[in-house]
Amino acid sequence: MRTTLFAAALGAAALLGAIAPASAQRTDPCAGPITFGTTISATGTNSTLSDRWMKMTEIFEEEFNRMAGGVALSGCGGKKVPIKFVMYDDQSVPATAVSLYEKMATVDRVDLFVGPDWSTHGFPVSQIFEKYKTPSVMSNVATPRVYEQGFKYITGLAFHANTWSQNYFESLKNVNPQPKSVFWIVHDNLIAKTVYEIHKPIAEKQGIKTVGEEIFAPTTRDFTGIILKIRAAKPDIIYISSFDAVSVPLVQQMRQLRVTAMDVHHIMATGSLARQINLEGVTGELYWHEGIKGPYSDIALKVLERAEIKLFDYLWTGGRLDSYFVMIQAIEKVGKLDREAIATALRAPGAKWKRPGGEFEFDAGGLSKIVAFTHQIQNGAPVIIAPAAQATGTIKWPSPTWQ
Amino acid sequence: MTAIIAQLVISGLLLGGLYALVAFGLSLIYGVVRILNFAHGTLLAIGGIAASIIFAVYKLNPVLIAVVLVLVFLVFGYLMHIYLLDPLKKRNPFEATIGTVLVTVGLLLIISDLAAEIAGPTPKNIPLEFHAYIVGEVIIQRAELYILGGITLFTIALHLFLKKTWFGRAIRAVTQSPLGANICGIRSKQIHAQTVAVGCGIVAIAGVLWSLKFPVDPYGGFDLTVRAFTIIILGGIGNLVGALLAGLFLGLAEVFTSFLWASDWAPAVSIVLLLVILVVFPRGLASVRK
Amino acid sequence: MTGSATEKLALAAIFAIAVIAPFLGAYYLTFVFTMLIAYVVAQSWDWLHGEAGYVNLGHYIYFGIGAYVFSLGYINELPVVVCFAFAALFTAGVGAILSYPLFRLRGDYFAFATLALLPLFDLLAANLKGITKGTDGIPLPPKGVIVMGVDVKVFSYYVALAVCVAAFFLTIWLARNKFGFALKAIRNDEQAAEICGIRIFPVKLKTMALGATFAALAGACYPWAYRYIDPTTVFGLNVALIPIAMALLGGTGLLWGALIGTILLGTMQQMLLVQISGFQATIVGIVTLLIGRYMPGGLLRARIVRGTPGLGALGKEHHERLGVRPAVGAAGEALAIERRTIDPDRTILTCNGVTMAFGGNIAVNNVTLEVKEGEILGLIGPNGSGKTTLFNLISKIYEPVAGEIRFDGHLLNGLRRDTVSHVGIGRTYQIPRPFSDLTVQENIAIPLMFRGDGGLARDAALAEAIKFARFAGLEARLFDRADALNLQQRKALEFARALACRPKLLLVDEVASGLTPAEVRAFVDHIREMRDKYGVTVIWVEHIISALSQVVDRLVVLEQGSVIADGPLREVMADERVLRTYFGGSLKEHA
Amino acid sequence: MLEIRNLVVDHGELRAIWDVSLDVEAGERVGLLGANGAGKSTTLGAILGIYKASGGHIRYKSAEIANREAVQNVEAGIALVPEGRQLFPEMKVRENLEMGAYPRSARGKVAENLDRIFDLFPILREKQNQNANELSGGQQQMVAIGRALMSSPQLLLLDEPFLGVAPVIIEEVMAALNRLADQGVTFLLVEQNIHRAMEFVERAYVIENGRTVLAGSKQQLLGDPEFSNKFLGLD
Questions:
Q1: What is the pTM of this model?
Q2: ipTM tops the 0.90 cut
Q3: Cβ within 8 Å of A, C 248-287
Q4: Is the peptide bond before A116 cis (omega within 30 degrees of 0)?
Q5: Which of A60, A382, C520, D182 sits at a 20 to 30 Å CA gap from D107?
C-alpha cells in the first residue's frame, strides 16, 4: 500500500509538473512586449454590457502598436515596446475571474493587469493584485467600498458614484420652472443602489424633495405597481438608477401609462435602450462620446470603428479603453517596466491622467474622479447639455415627450 | 382607487396570460410524456429573440413571424423527442429520469450559448408603437389588446383543438390513462413525439407574444420554467383551463404584491405559492378534486 | 475498504495531487479548490439522491447558507472555527426544518419544490437587507488575508480538502453501514422499508441535514478564500446545477461517481475557459447531453468503462463491494427466530368492528375477527372482497376509519407503520415488492438490521440472511439483484424477508398462485414448519383453495368487505351462503 | 376466428406467459379462467397488441397478428374491455366513448355506434355529459364496454367486467352482453368469479402459471373433478 501511494504521488507530481509551463520571471525591464492580463465578461449575464470587448481589445493591441508604435520607455533610452494582451472570458462569474487572475499571475506571468469590470468582480479580484503586488487599472468598478479596503495596487476607471450625476443636478439649478420633487426607481444592484444613495441627499440639499422610492428586482417585468405609485406621487423628476437592459419594460410601460414629469433621468440612457424603446427627451449620463475629442481619441475612435462599437450603445466601453490608456501612461511615466514604481505612480496624489474625454485624477482610494457628461436624447441622438464647456446643445425643459 | 385597481388588473391579466401561455406547452408535454423539460423557458427566450431579429431585419408582421417560428419549433420538438428523449424510454426508470435531466439541461446550455454567440447577449423585443385608449384614468395600449386578444384566441383555439380534434383528444387521453389510450388504438410513441412538437410550437407563439411586451435575453427564461411548473401544479397537469386560471392568478398576485407591498418581493409570490401548495397537497391540487 | 488496486492507485493519485497542488502555484490552488468545493457539494447531494433516491435540485442553497453564515460571523469578528461551526450547525438546522415539508413530496414534485428553493433563497438574500446586506453582498475585511505569513487561501484549501476526504469516507461508510441500507431500502420502496421496521422520516431527515452540513462547510470555505459573496454567486441557478450535473455525469450512487464527474467536468470547463474563446457553454452542454443520451447511468456505469480492465473497478455498485460470502452451514440450520411455546387458548389478534372506506367505497365493513396463537387461518373471498385491505389495516398501511385492532397486547390503532414489525407482524405483498436493486441477501438482511431490539450489525445480518435464503430456496441467487428474479423467486424472497422480521404473526398474501403443485406442497410445509417449530401464527390469503386446504385450521370468508363465514374448512365450504355468494351456488347447478 | 398457439409473453425479464394455446370460433362465448397472476390479462393484452409476444402465434381470421400494433387489431375488429376499466377520468362519458372510435376505420360510424350503446345502456345517455370519474363503478364498467363497442368489434375481449360492480348492475351488464352475443359478437371473457363466468360462457380454458392446463365445454369442465378441484380444493 505504501509503495503504491508513493508511486502514485510521484506520478501525480510528474504529471502536474508536465502541465505547468516553465516560464522564467522577466529580468530585463526594458524588453518587450509588455503583457497586460485581463478578463472580460464575454458570456453570462454581464455580457450584455461587454460582449464585444474581446474583439475590441485585440484590435486595440494591434492599433496601439501600429499608431503609437508601442509604449515609450524613457528609462530604456526612449525605446518603444509593443503591448500584448492575455485575456480570458470570466463568464460573468466572480469565482471564475479570481481563478483566471491567479492563473495570469502565476502561469501566464503577465506584467500588469487591466481589469476586471464590475464591482462584484472587483471585490474578490482586488485581493489578487495585492497578493502578487501587481498593479491593475480596473474598469467600471464604481463602488467606493472596493477602494475603501486600503489596497495599494488597485485603481479603477469609472464614474465616481459620488459624482455620477453631479452635472445633472448642477444643470437643474438653471432650469425653469424649478423641479421640486423626485421619485427614485432603483435597480436592485450594487452600483445602481450606491448612485441612488449618494444622490438622494444631494437632491434634497438642492430643495428637491423625495416623494417616493422603489427598488425593483432585475427579473421584474411588470412595473404597473410602481408606475401607479409614481402617478399618485406626481414627481417633477423621475430618477431611474438602473442598468439599461433591465429597465426596458420600465420605461416602455411608463410611456404607455402616460407618466408625466418635467424630466425622466436614466443613469444609463444608452443606445441599446433607445433601440428598444422611445427614449426621446430622456436625460442621462455619458462617460465619453465620439463627438468629444481629446488625448488618444484618434486611437480610440479607430478601435471603436473597427470593432463596430458605438459608445452610445455600450456605455462602459469608455472606461475599458481608458484603463488601457492610463496603464500605458503609468508605464511611460516610470519609463520602464517596474511594478512597484508603476503602482506608486498610479496612486501619486494630484497626478493628472489623460483620457479621450479629458483629464482627471484618482481619489485617495484609487477610484477615478470622473464626472459624467449629462446628455439629453434629442431627435434620437444624445446631445451633451452639461458641463457647459463641452455642451453641444441646451436642455429642452420641461422634457417635451413627458408632458 | 377603482382606476388604479383596474389598471393593475389589466397588467396582471396580461402578465398572467403570458405566463399561462408558457405553461401550456410544458403542461401538455409533462402530461403526456412525463418529462421535466428544463429547457422550456429558455426555448421561449430563443423564440422571442428570433422573433425580434426577424422583425428588425425583415419588418415582418408578428403574426407571420409566429407562423414561421411555430413551424421551426414544431420540427425542433419532434426531432428532439425522436432522437434525444424517446430512446431513453428503453432504459430502466432510474436511467431514464437521469438521462432526461442531463439531456434537457444540456440542451438549455447549448441553445442559450449558441443564441448568445449568434445574436448577441443583449435583450431584444419587438418595438411596436401603437395607439392607446384612455378610459377615465385607465390606459390600455392597442398592442396590449392585441396580446390579450392573441392569448384569448390562442387559448380558445388550443382548447377546441384538445376538445374537438382526434389528435387533441388523443393527447388528453394519453395524459389521463396511457393504457386506456393504447387500448383505443392510440400509438403512444407517435403521440408523444407529436405532443412534444406541439408543446414547442406553443412556446414559439408564447415567445412572439412575450417579445411584443417584454424584452428577452438568451440567459433568461429559466425563471419562466419555474413559474410554468408552479402553474401546472396549481392548475392540474394537462388541464388547460386550470393552467390559464393559475397563470392569471399568478400574474395578478405579482402585480398587486408589487403595488401593495414592494416590487422586489413580487417574484417571491410564485415560489411561495408553489411551495405552500405542494406542502399542503403533496400530490398536487388535482388529488384534492377527486 | 476492500478496494481493488486500481481504486487504491486512483485514490492515492488524486489525493497526492490535491495535497501538492498549492505548492505548484496559486493558479493550481484556485483551480483545485473550486473542484474540491464542487466535489463536496456534488457528493453531499448524492447521499440523498444516490442512496435515498430523492432529487434535491435545490441542494446548492445549503452551500449559500453556509457561505452567508460564515461571512456574517467573520465580519462580526468571531474566530474562524466558530464561524465554521455556526455555518455547519445553522445549515444543518435549515436542512432539518426543510425536511418536514419537503419529504411529504415524492418524485417530480420533490424536484419541483426543491428547484424553487434556489430563487427563493436568492430573493431572501437579496431582500433581507438588514441581515444579508442585500445585493451589495458581503466583503470580508482584508486584514485576515494573511494568517501566520501564509495566504488564507491555503488554509481554506486544506480545510476544503479535509472536508472532501471526510465526504469520501463518509460515502464509503454510508454505502456499507446499516444507515445506508435504510436509505437504500427507502430508495426502492418506502412502504416496504417501513414494513421491514425502518422508521423512514428520521433517516431522511438525518441524510438531508448531513448533506446540508457538508455543503455548508464547502460554502464556508468559499468566502474565506474569495473574501466576497453576493446572492447571485451563492444562490444563482447557473452555478447551482453544475455540481448535480457532475454527480450525474460520473454516475450517481457510486462511490467514485461524484469524484470522477467533478474531476472530468471541472477540468473540462477550466480547459475550455483558458484555451477556447467562445462556445464554452455549448461544448459543456453537448457533453452533458451526450452523456445523458448514451450513458444515462453515468460515465462509470457505461458498458465501455465497466468493460475496461482496471477502470471497471471504479464503477462497482455498492453490493459488489460487500465482501460477505456465505458461511457454509448445515442445510437444516435453525433460523434466528425465537421459538415460542404456543398457548392455543390465547388470542393473539383481535379485530373488532374494523371498517375501512376509500371515498364512498367501503372496502372493509365492520369486520370482527379473532385469531388464536399458533393458528393457521385461511382468508378467502372473491376479488375486491377486502382481503388485501384487511391485511393492509393489520400491517398499518391504512388506518381504519372505525373499529379496533389489537395484537399481542398492543392496540394497533394509531401505531406507526415501522413498529408493526417490531411488535411481531410480518407480511408479504400480493404483487411482490422486494427492494429491486438490492441483492437477495441484502433484501433479507434489512429487516434483521432494523429489528425492534436494535437489530443485528450489518455483517451479522448479512450472514444470518443466508439461512433465510436457504430456507426459501434462494441460496443459489444470494448475490443476484432482486429485479433479476422471476415472479416465483420474488415471492419466495418476500416470504423470506417477512420471516426475517421474526414475526409472531405472518400475513401471507397469495403466494401459491403460479407455483407447481410440488412447489405448493413445499410452501405448505414451510408454513407448517413456521407454526410447529417457531410458534408463528399465520393468516394466509389465497385463491387456490386446494393449497389452503392442506394446512389451514380455520377459514374466514369475506364478501364485499364483510365476514360471511368463519369456521373449520369443511364447515365453511359446505356453508350454503358461502357457496352461493362465493361460488354462485354449487357448481352442479350449472351442469 | 382466433387461434393462439404456444404463446410466450415476457414482461421485461419476467416471463408471464409460458405456453398458452386456445381457439375461439366466430360467434362463440369462451371463458379464460384461472387464479390471480396466472396470465389471463396478459393473454388478452397480447391478443390486442399491447404486449409483445416473444414466441408462438396469434392468428385472427387466419392472419398472423402477434406483434401487430393495437391500432391495427382494433381496425380489424378486436376490442378490449380492460381490467380496471382504464377510462379517461376527466373526460366526459361521451368523449370516453368516442375515443373508442379513434382508429380511422371507426370514425365514420360514431353517431350510429353511440346510439347503439345508449340503447344498450340507457343510463349512459343521461350521463353522457358527466365526467367519467363521477360515475359509479357499474356505470364506469358500462362506459368501458361501450368504448370497446365504438369500433364495431367482432371479437370482444372482456377482462373481469364484473369486478367491483353491484349485483344489480351485473345483471344489467350481463343482459347487455347477451344481446351483443345475439347480434353475433364473439366473446373471450376473463373472469375469476366462476359462477358469473359459467353463466355466460359456452366453453372455457383454464390457465395456470402462464400455461393452458384445462379446456372444455361448460358441461365437460363442470363434470371434471380436476376442474372443481382447482377452484374448490375439495376432493
A1: 0.89
A2: no
A3: 270, 273-274, 277-278, 280-281
A4: yes
A5: D182
Which chain A residue has the Cα nearest residue B9? Answer: A224
* Domain that includes residue D157, residue range: 2-231
Give CA–CA dist B275/D211, Å, rounded: 51
Boundaries of every domain in chain A: 2-159+294-360, 166-286+373-402
Same CATH topology for A2-159+294-360 and A166-286+373-402?
A: yes
With the CA atoms of D179, D184, D188 and D193 taken in that order, what torsion angle do they form, in degrees rounded to the nearest 10?
20
- DSSP states of C94-124: HHHHHHHHHTT--HHHHHHHHHHHHHHHHHH
8 A C-beta contact, residue C237 and residue C224: no
pLDDT(C450) > 50: yes
C546 burial via Cβ count (<10 Å: 0-12, 13-18, 19+): middle
Q: Which residues contact D203 (CB under 8 A, 6 or more apart)?
A: D28, D29, D30, D31, D215, D216, D217, D218
Work out the burial of residue C248: count CB atoms within 10 Å of its CB; fewer than 13 is exposed, 13-18 middle, 19 or more buried: buried
Strand pairing partners for C312? none
Instruction: Confirm if B132 and A256 have CB atoms less than 8 A apart.
Output: yes
Distance (Å) from the alpha carbon of B262 to chain A's nearest alpha carbon: 7
Closest partner residue to A216 (CB to CB) among B14, B120, B264 is B264
Neighbours of chain C (3+ CB pairs under 8 A): A, B, D
Q: Which of D163, D195, D209 sits opposite C584 (nearest CB)?
A: D195
Phi, psi of D215 (to 5 degrees): -155, 155
Q: What is the pLDDT of residue C1?
A: 43
Instruction: Look at residues B52, B49, B23 and name the one whose alpha carbon lies nearest to residue B37.
Output: B23
Q: How far is CA C60 from the centre of its chain?
A: 22
pLDDT, position A77? 87
Compute the distance between CA of residue C281 and CA of residue A89 in angstroms, rounded to an integer. Answer: 11
Residue in the block written with cell 522564467? A24
Q: Which amino acid is at C226?
A: Y
What's the rounded Cα separation, in Å, for the pair A322 and A320? 5
Question: Strand D29-33 and strand A237-241: pairing?
Answer: unpaired
Q: Prior bond to A177 cis, omega within 30? A: yes
Judged by average pLDDT, the poorest of B26-30, C376-380, D194-198 is D194-198
**CATH code where residue D70 lies:** 3.40.50.300
Task: Give the pLDDT confidence score for residue B268 in this predicted structure.
Answer: 86
Number of domains in chain D: 1
Question: What pLDDT, on the 0 to 100 scale, is given for residue C324?
Answer: 58
Please indicate if any CB of chain C lies within 8 Å of the CB of D230.
yes
Domains of chain B: 2-289 (1.10.3470)
Q: Which of A217, A256, A276 sits opposite B132 (nearest CB)?
A: A256
Strands of C425-491 (E only): list them. Answer: 425-427
Contact (CB, 8 A) for B19 and B250: yes
- C541 contact partners, CB below 8 Å, separation of at least 6: C378, C379, C380, C387, C388, C391, C430, C507, C508, C509, C510
- Look at residue A18 in the predicted model and tell me its pLDDT: 46
In order, the DSSP letters of D45-65 are: HHHHTSS-EEEEEEEETTEE-
At B215, which amino acid appears?
P
Chain D positions in Cβ-Cβ contact with residue C509 (cut-off 8 Å)? none
Reply yes or no on whether the pLDDT at A148 is more than 50: yes
Q: Determine, for residues D232 and C583 on separate chains, whether the beta-carbon distance falls below 8 Å.
A: yes
Nearest to D195 among C543, C549, C583 (CB): C583
Q: Dig out the grid coordinates for A214 from the structure.
A: 422603489
Q: Which overall architecture, per CATH, does domain A2-159+294-360 show?
A: 3-Layer(aba) Sandwich (3.40)
Report the range out of A121-125, B195-199, C585-589, D135-139 with the highest average pLDDT: B195-199
Q: Pairing mode, if any, of strands C505-509 and C537-541?
A: parallel
Confidence at residue C586, expressed as pLDDT on a 0 to 100 scale: 47
